[in-house]
Design brief:
Blueprint lengths: L39 E7 L4 E7 L3 H9 L4 E7 L2 E6 L2 H4 L4 H16 L6 H11 L12 E6 L5 E2 L3 H28 L4 E4 L2 E4 L3
Antiparallel strand pairs: 1-2, 1-5, 3-4, 4-5, 5-6, 7-8
C-alpha cells in the first residue's frame, strides 16, 4: 500500500480472485463526472483549497500533470494497485500539507479496508494493516493529480472500481450538503422539504 515503486502489471483477468474481489457487471455506466473525449482521460486535480475532475491528454499526460502540479520533477505515490498520486519530488520540503488530498487518500484506503471499494483480499488486508498504524498513512503536500495506473506505471484512466467509489462519494457529499441546507432553512423558520437530492421551498 502506498508505494513509490512500480506496481504488479498482471492483467486483472489473470489475477487470483479473493473473497473481497468484485467487478462491475456489463451494465456499468460511465459516470457524469468523467467528461473526457477520445484521446483524453479524466483525472483528479486536488489543489490546496479545492479539487475537481479534469481532462488531460492521453498522449502527453505526464507533461500536463507536471503543469498542474507546478513542477517537471514528479514522483508517483501508488496508493492502490490501480490508483496513484502524482506530486512534486520535493513537495514535502517546499509545499504545505494538502489537507483535502490527504483526507481523500485516507478515505480511499479506509474504503478498501471496509469493503466499500472493490479490491482483492490482499489489498484489503494491506489497507487494514496500514490503518492500524496511522503514523504510516501518506501525507500529501502541494497540488497533486490522481490517476489510474497504466501497464508501465504511466497515468491511465480510472478503472470501474474507482469510478463506482468516487461516484458514490459525490452522491454522499451532495446528500450531506442538501441535508445541511434543509436544516439551516428550517432553523430560519422556512418550510422546506428535500427529495431526490433537491431542496424544495413552499410558500403558504
Amino acid at each position: 500500500m502506498p508505494d513509490d515503486s512500480e506496481t504488479d502489471n498482471t492483467p486483472a483477468s489473470e489475477q487470483p480472485q479473493g473473497a473481497a474481489n468484485w467487478t462491475s457487471d456489463g451494465d456499468h455506466t460511465r459516470p457524469e463526472w468523467m467528461t473526457s473525449e477520445r484521446g483524453a482521460m479524466t483525472v483528479m486535480e486536488i489543489r490546496l483549497t479545492s479539487g475537481e475532475p479534469v481532462d488531460i491528454s492521453e498522449v502527453d499526460a505526464e507533461r500536463e500533470i507536471a503543469a498542474r502540479v507546478g513542477t517537471a520533477n514528479l514522483r508517483r505515490l501508488v496508493v492502490l494497485e490501480h490508483v496513484q498520486v502524482w506530486l512534486g519530488v520535493d513537495a514535502a520540503a517546499t509545499e504545505p500539507v494538502n489537507l483535502g488530498a490527504t483526507r481523500f487518500v485516507h478515505q480511499l484506503i479506509e474504503s478498501v479496508s471496509t469493503g466499500d471499494y472493490a479490491a482483492g483480499d490482499a489489498e484489503r488486508d494491506s489497507a487494514r494493516r496500514l490503518l492500524a498504524h496511522p503514523e504510516n498513512l501518506p501525507v500529501i503536500h502541494g497540488t497533486c493529480v490522481v490517476t489510474g495506473v497504466g501497464v508501465e506505471g504511466e497515468a491511465a484512466s480510472f478503472d470501474t472500481s474507482f469510478q463506482d467509489w468516487f461516484t458514490r462519494l459525490i452522491d454522499l457529499i451532495q446528500e450531506n450538503r442538501a441535508a445541511e441546507t434543509v436544516a439551516r432553512l428550517r432553523e430560519a423558520g422556512l418550510p422546506v422539504e428535500w427529495a431526490g437530492g433537491k431542496v424544495y421551498t413552499f410558500d403558504y
